[in-house]
Amino acid sequence: MAQKKSPDPEVRTHRKITCIKHFQYEFYTEKGALAMALGGTSAEYDRKFAAPVITRINQTDEEQAILEHNAHVEALETLATDLRNCLEHATDEKYKQYLAVKLDRTNQRLEQLRTEG
Fold this sequence. Notes:
Residues 73-116 form a coiled coil. This protein is 77% helix and 0% strand. The protein has helices at 9-37, 42-49, 61-89, 93-116.
């Protein structure tokens, strides 16, 4: 259920900041995936996804890949939740359409990752 537009400017500003944060999060998620594809380090990956990926000294590559896959899925789930939240509060129709497309693409990518794992 969408909330009504608040007359309180502080509440409206908070909602706008939340939506801006999801775009920043999305940018870093994409950048982190790119860093891994290009041979980025685990520390870079952790920083971009803002989710801890625990590594052990004797961890196999397969175990590491599973942890990284799970972190990617978790990051996309968080992004999808943020997109849904912003979509509920959006008032501009073009922005709503944009958010709906981004949410759909995020859900498709999530489904793809879940079937791969």
